[in-house]
Here is the input.
Amino acid sequence: MWINVITDVLGGLLVAIVAGVTTWLLGRHTYRRELEKKEIGGLRRLIGDLARKRALVEPQSLSRVESAGPGHRDFDAVSASVFNVRNAVDEARLAARDEDSSEVHHILDQMSLHCNDYLHGSRHDPENYPSQIHVLRVSLIRELGLLRKVHQELPDDEPGSKAYGAAKHGSS
Here is the structure.
């Protein structure tokens, strides 16, 4: 009789432990999946924002800018646009999983640094901002390629590719 009670209690405990562990594992998997969806959503928004930036359109010729420098309408607009790009990168970072070793965080940090390099460089050498924006665009394309290696489902739009409504590069 006591053996049956002990067997029933141990069996019940074993079932409860297995059920608890299974519930915890499923909850953890669901939570991580939701974090990944949030991260991918943030990255998709970032790629869309970059694709619509006129300042990042691939230039046909860097020499076509007649007058540059502070106070020039294009210089001011491009600098403001790059500042907005940096803010969009920061928003994507907030949506990314918060893991110290996150590859995505590292790539987004690099993108932010590239924007800072443009803003600093153009402020100190405003006459050269057209070539600096080209360097920024190339750097952003490289970093987006690295993001796509982490998340293959991201669109392959390039910065500036949808600035005038037409998809010149990639698809969404």
Summary: The chain has one domain: 2-150. Residues 2-51 form the longest helix (50 residues). Helices lie at 2-51, 73-95, 103-124, 129-150. The two ends are 69 Å apart (CA to CA).
